[in-house]
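for the writeup, i need someone to sanity check this before i put it in the appendix. the sequnce is what the collaborator sent (i think, or maybe the updated version? ugh). structure was predicted straight from it, no edits. if anything looks off just tell me and ill rerun, i have time this weekend
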Amino acid sequence: MKQTDSITSYHAHIYFDAASVVQARALCQQAAERFSVEMGRVHEKNVGPHPMWSCQLAATPEQFAQLLPWLALNRDGLVVFAHPETGNALADHRDHGIWLGTGLELDLSIFG
């Protein structure tokens, strides 16, 4: 059985488009304030492996235990992709991802 002690943090990526950017920004700001997680830039373009515009929330394992259930109930139709940070970016994104809403295809080629 795999251990979780290699998880240093988690990222939750909230996906949105031009029609939902205001909703996504508000959700991320609420999460940052409520859980003291770090809110990244609101990217109005595809960044990294992400197939849509996105905003990242960075959380400790303890914060993530509270954040994920809250996102599940408050995402209001937005797709969320979350993953652990273990030092193996490919495996973290490909093998250990958690989807809230419909899973999308990531561009894993950036992890070459």
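The longest strand covers residues 9-16. The chain has one domain: 9-103.
thx in advance!!
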